[in-house]
Amino acid sequence: MYQRSHNPRAVVVVLVLAAVVVITVDFRQSPGGPVERLQEVTGAVFGPVQRGLATVLRPVGNAVGAVGELGGLRSENRRLQAEVQRLRGAERANQELAGQNQQLRATLRMAARCGCKTVGATVVASSGSNFQWSVTIDAGTRQGISRDMAVINADGLVGRVVAANPDYATVLLVVDPTSGVAAHVSRGGTAGLVRGRGSDGLSFEPLHAGAPVGLGDLILTQGYAGGVFPNGLPIGLVEEVGPPRAGLVRTVTVRPFADASALDQVAVVVASPPPPPAPGGGVRTDLGGR
Amino acid sequence: MRRVLVFAGVIVVALLLESTVLASIRLGGARPDLLVIAVVAVAMTAGPTSAACFGFSAGLVADLLFARPVGVAALVYTCLGFAVGVGRVYLVGSRAWVHLLLTGAASLAAVWSAGLVLRVLDLSSWAFVARTGPLVALYNLLLAPVVYPLVRRLVADTAPERVYRWQGG
After folding, report:
1. Are residues A168 and A184 in the same domain?
2. Residue-level pLDDT at A83
3. CATH code of B100's domain
4. Per-residue pLDDT reduced to its tens digit, A227-240
5. Domains in chain B, number
6. pLDDT tens sequence across A5-14
7. Predicted ipTM of the assembly
8. Rounded to a whole number, what is the largest CA-CA distance in chain A?
9. For residues B32 and B136, is the Cβ–Cβ distance under 8 A?
10. How far is B145 from chain A (nearest CA, A)?
């Protein structure tokens, strides 16, 4: 018979209870709550290292690509190979810069579309979890970013800021299952709610059963006073319209414009013009993401 | 104290790798979960108490870093670490492929458990959970031959848990 210095069962019971308490506190906390403050601290600690790693790994990726391409140049002499490699390296760098420039210009056009004032940022890391769709960007409260600001890119709506520290911010993507965005159909103005479905994209739930929604319809954000998202930002296209269910609204599958797996240059909306009067007498449809 | 530092180091390195290098290399849309491999390695080396503490800390930091809901991974990794730690008496000394299989099974269990909790909270779908589990397990099986022995060696180098024997009589 032996006895350990710690009773394993007691330890695991305490830890499980602690986890349950944390889940409950996280779900019930108001903005600026204890768990959110902890998230900000964690982001501030990991952010600079993640950014450093991303900077280090990008050239390594380029170098691997360059080595692969050298196989096709064996017939040329060594000097020419080096020259070609150098020129190709410079060209790749230029192409990357040109691509970045194009993305930034397109993002600015998107911001101009809603008349928003934005702050540019680069995605430095993404969530390593299979159940959370979030990214870390290299701009924070120092650049005027705070919680519940909309984030866009050249393609459309990306998500919203859920935590911000002085230099970095965490962005919850629209495809995250906890995300909910008030939206409307471009053609006909049917109002509803866009919910995230992870890697399955988005779903649009019309507020009223029988509201007209068709394949290929454009889904835009619906702005309202006190809401997070500016009005009229493109979210995605209707890909599939589910059959009507008794007493329930139809579920509409939406393919998002912004590719969650290939985010690079984004813009955070720090100020937007007042939204137009809400359709249907100002029905509030945003669930605030929870 | 040395063990705590090793645990912290493993958690930080695993999370940094997951959020930068591995985040861009997806397998069928799934990402690997290095922390599950680490939790199993700790459980097999240091026992249920250390593994539960490691799992809780790793899950909590991962939840905080990767946005909400906070606490789900902490809950799953705690239970996983404890379960593997308790069951290790049946596996210690077994062949390498048994450890590999255990890591794969633990990965599947971790994803499905987290998915179950999130489904209960209406934050995930059954189809996604069912599809992601095997993919993460496969991904982790590919990484386990590198990560698993490394974490085991790091943890084994620290002081073992103190065990008091009572000589009855």
Report:
1. no
2. 79
3. 1.10.1760
4. 888 888 889 999 88
5. 1
6. 567 788 889 9
7. 0.80
8. 77
9. yes
10. 20
Q: Are residues A160 and A195 in the same domain?
A: no
Question: What is the helix (H) or strand (E) element at residue B55, kind and residue range?
Answer: helix B48-65
**Considering only CB atoms, which chain A residues are within 8 Å of B165?**
2
This prediction's pTM: 0.64
Of B16, B21, B69, the CB nearest to A27: B69
Residue numbers of the domain that contains A165: 36-173
Q: Which residue, B47, B49, B163, is CA-closest to A14?
A: B49
Helix (H) or strand (E) holding B153: helix B126-156
Tell me the CATH number at A187: 2.40.10.350
According to DSSP H, which parts of chain A are helical? 8-28, 34-69, 78-113, 279-282
Tens-place pLDDT, residues B57-113: 999 999 888 866 888 899 999 999 999 988 888 876 678 888 888 899 999 999 888
Do A43 and A168 fall into the same domain? yes
Nearest CA in chain A to B125: A197
Digit-coded pLDDT (tens) for A122-154: 898 887 677 788 999 999 999 899 988 999 988
- The 3-state secondary structure of B58-119 reads HHHHHHHHCCCCCCHHHHHHHHHHHHHHHHHHHCCCCCHHHHHHHHHHHHHHHHHHHHHHHH
Residue A109 burial by Cβ neighbours in a 10 Å radius (0-12, 13-18, 19+) = exposed
CATH number at residue A165: 2.40.10.340
Q: Residue A6: its pLDDT value, please?
A: 65
B43: domain range?
2-156
Minimal Cα–Cα distance from B54 to chain A, Å? 10
Residue B166 maps to a domain: no
| DSSP label at residue A243 | P
